């Protein structure tokens, strides 16, 4: 588990026992991850840091033994894991918002219960970067993608540093920013995404979350050149293994939510129209979504 230190305080010596400030809240949402949640928890507990961090797990009324596995870890590591159990099931987005709302850290590190981290100093590296670079609101890193048999299906051969601004993400440029790699500043401008009604209608929620954070802060995303997590593709995944037609329909829905709820210049509007024509227009026509196609085009003209 992480090495926790007691920070010095300028208060009266009688107050020296006050708990140190929590630097990072590890926020994990999970549902029916009995096979995988132990790997996620192990990867959180192995973190080596010179600061305090908390682990919050939002368990969304799983039908399997996910909650029992988490409880076992809580018994083995008393005080290290906080279980936020929802009954009945409230869905992934509301689960995420609830866990983030309950976080106390200066930064939030996100990881779903079917993914896991691979570097013991992941949190330390990301905190060090964000502390030194206030112009960034998010710090990510490279990620290996594996299947349900733990076989590698994607790994960038030569990882490099990257950065993305609001315009980049709006136009679909967000390489190596998967949710299991993401650390974000825990500030009102970020948390207020949970007050936006449209957010609960999203499917690729992590992309809209990143876009909102950039839009509301004017800051950027930085990607460290280190591979420090595994993203898992499996049949129970919310997004990764669904039918291709359903996935495409959801992408069209997210695209329309994006153009309705975010600001963009005339030049960016033209680029968004190109994206729609190139990626989604024929899909809408083939699925007899003529009105949707016309409304999207009119919104971008």
Automatic annotation (TrEMBL):
<feature type="domain" description="Glycosyltransferase 2-like">
    <location>
        <begin position="25"/>
        <end position="185"/>
    </location>
</feature>
<keyword id="KW-0808">Transferase</keyword>
<dbReference type="InterPro" id="IPR001173">
    <property type="entry name" value="Glyco_trans_2-like"/>
</dbReference>
<dbReference type="InterPro" id="IPR029044">
    <property type="entry name" value="Nucleotide-diphossugar_trans"/>
</dbReference>
<dbReference type="GO" id="GO:0016758">
    <property type="term" value="F:hexosyltransferase activity"/>
</dbReference>
<dbReference type="Pfam" id="PF00535">
    <property type="entry name" value="Glycos_transf_2"/>
</dbReference>
<protein>
    <submittedName>
        <fullName>Glycosyl transferase family 2</fullName>
    </submittedName>
</protein>
């Amino acid at each position: 588990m992480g090495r926790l230190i007691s920070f010095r305080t300028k208060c009266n010596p009688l107050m020296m026992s006050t708990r140190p400030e929590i630097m990072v809240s590890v926020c994990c949402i999970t549902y029916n991850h009995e096979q995988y949640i132990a790997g996620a928890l192990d990867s959180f507990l192995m973190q080596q840091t010179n600061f305090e961090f908390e682990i919050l797990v939002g368990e969304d009324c799983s039908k399997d033994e996910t909650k029992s596995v988490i409880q076992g870890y809580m018994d083995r590591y008393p005080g290290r894991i906080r279980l936020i159990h929802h009954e009945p099931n409230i869905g992934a987005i509301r689960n995420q918002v609830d866990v983030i709302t309950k976080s106390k850290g200066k930064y939030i590190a996100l990881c779903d219960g079917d993914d896991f981290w691979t570097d013991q100093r992941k949190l330390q590296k990301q905190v060090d970067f964000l502390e030194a670079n206030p112009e960034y609101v998010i710090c990510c890193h490279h990620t290996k993608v594996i299947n349900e048999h733990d076989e590698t299906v994607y790994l960038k051969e030569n990882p490099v540093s990257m950065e993305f601004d609001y315009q980049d993400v709006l136009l679909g440029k967000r390489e190596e920013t998967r949710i299991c790699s993401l650390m974000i500043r825990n500030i009102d401008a970020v948390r207020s995404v949970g007050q936006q009604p449209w957010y609960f209608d999203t499917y690729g929620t992590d992309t809209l979350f990143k876009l909102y954070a950039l839009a509301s802060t004017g800051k950027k995303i930085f990607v460290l050149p280190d591979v420090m997590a595994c993203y898992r593709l499996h049949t129970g995944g919310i997004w990764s293994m669904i039918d291709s037609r359903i996935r495409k329909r959801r992408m069209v829905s997210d695209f329309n939510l994006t153009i309705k709820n975010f600001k963009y210049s005339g030049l960016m509007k033209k680029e968004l129209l190109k994206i729609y024509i190139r990626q989604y227009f024929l899909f809408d026509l083939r699925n007899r979504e003529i009105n949707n196609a016309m409304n999207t085009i009119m919104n971008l003209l």
